[in-house]
Structure formats: C-alpha cells, structure tokens
Automatic annotation (TrEMBL):
Pfam families: DUF4191. This is Unannotated protein. InterPro entries: DUF4191. Residues 216-225 have a biased composition (Polar residues). The chain crosses the membrane at residues 27-49, 55-76. Residues 203-225 are annotated as: Disordered. Keywords: Membrane, Transmembrane, Transmembrane helix.
C-alpha cells in the first residue's frame, strides 16, 4: 500500500463513521460547527490579547484553526462512539465484536447457547479466562454450566464471569471494554498463550458478529486496542 493510500483510506473511514453517526445523531453537524466556532473564537481572542504584533498573530492563527479541528475530531469521536454502541445494543454477538478488536485478547463465540438465544462467549488474555454472557431469562443457568465445564480445563488460571445488561448486577455493552481492561493481569504472556492453546481443543461454535465501525474514544475507525 502506498503512503498516499493511507490518508485516503482514513478519510473514507471518517466519512463512513460520520454518515453512520448522523443517522442517530441528527444535531451532529450543528454541534461540530458550534465546537469549531467556539474553539477558534476563544483561542483567537486569546491570541489577539496575548500575542504582540500582527505577523505573530497571523502565524498563531494557523494554530488556532488546527486547535479548532482537533476539538471537532475529539467531540466527533465521542459521539461516534456513542452511536456505534447504540447500534450494537441488543445484538447477539455484540460482545464478540468488541473483544475481537482488543489487542492481546482472543475470544471464542457461543461456547454455550440455548433455544432462547442466550449465549456465553469465552475470552482469554493475561487476565485469565472471562466468560461473557448475553441474553435474558435463563442466562444464569447457562453461564453456571459453562463455568463448571471451563474450570475442568484451566487449572489455577483466573476465571471471571460477566453478564451483559443494563441492571446493577450486569455490565452495559458500552462499558465492556473498560471492564475488561481493568481486570488484573495475573498471568504472564507465556501462561496466557499456553491457556489459549489448551482451550483451543475445547472449541466452540460460531455466530454472526455485528458489522460496522467499532467504538474507541480517541478514534472512529475499527480499532485493535
């Protein structure tokens, strides 16, 4: 890939994310314009009052415009993140889509499932094994069964259970990535690699993963974190 293709691909991703976000965020253009104008207005006023000399003010005006663009991209990234999570909310496999885009994490989708479309996915990292459950009624029994099965294979490795939902005892899909990152890394990278190999033999079924741009607070393209 040539160096010229890289920025072109990034620009296409930005426009794709903008169109996706605008579908659910009707005030997005007005908000971004307001952020740009307010930022350059405040910054420009500071330059006029604090920077002596016309030529220096002209030079600093370029920095003012760049600061406005950075502010717009920051706000846009946050709102694109919110829109992306809103589209994932309630979709089977949403947790898989998020974990697949996290560095140093692997996930096997639907290692357990039932007729009510309850699903349990198995993720592995230096934090150990994490069973992530998505569904409704009956998810507790399904998760408990998979926990017992998993414990037979992982020895002393840490095992964490997470249920996706919007109650006080569950984790919202938008908070899953943050929750996983906060888990203590109790395994070395070699122990984690060995654990992955051991669990590969256990296997698991596959389900369709939701498509579309994934959220990241500082980026609007599909990330690997």
């Amino acid at each position: 890939m040539s160096t010229s293709e890289v920025p072109q691909g990034r620009i296409r991703q930005i426009f794709a994310a903008y169109r996706m976000t605008k579908r659910t965020d009707k005030f997005l253009p007005l908000i971004l314009l307001s952020v740009f104008l307010i930022t350059i207005g405040i910054s420009g006023a500071l330059v006029i009052f604090l920077v002596p000399g016309l030529w220096l003010q002209i030079i600093f005006s370029v920095s003012v415009i760049m600061l406005g663009i950075i502010a717009v991209l920051f706000v846009f990234g946050k709102r694109a993140e919110t829109a992306a999570y809103a589209q994932l909310e309630g979709q089977p496999g949403a947790a898989v889509a998020i974990v697949q885009n996290m560095r140093k994490w692997t996930i096997t989708s639907a290692v357990a499932a039932d007729r009510n479309q309850n699903l349990v996915h198995r993720a592995v990292s230096r934090a150990g094994v994490v069973l992530i459950a998505e569904g409704g009624a009956g998810i507790g029994a399904l998760l408990s069964g998979e926990r017992k099965r998993t414990l037979r294979f992982i020895g002393e490795a840490p095992l964490t259970e997470i249920v996706i939902g919007n109650t006080t005892t569950t984790v919202p899909i938008k908070s899953l990535q943050k929750k996983l990152k906060k888990l203590p890394k109790k395994l070395s990278k070699y122990e984690a690699a060995g654990l992955r190999k051991k669990l590969e033999a256990v296997g698991g079924s596959s389900i369709p993963v939701p498509k579309g741009p994934m959220p990241k607070s500082t980026n609007i393209r599909v990330p690997r974190q």
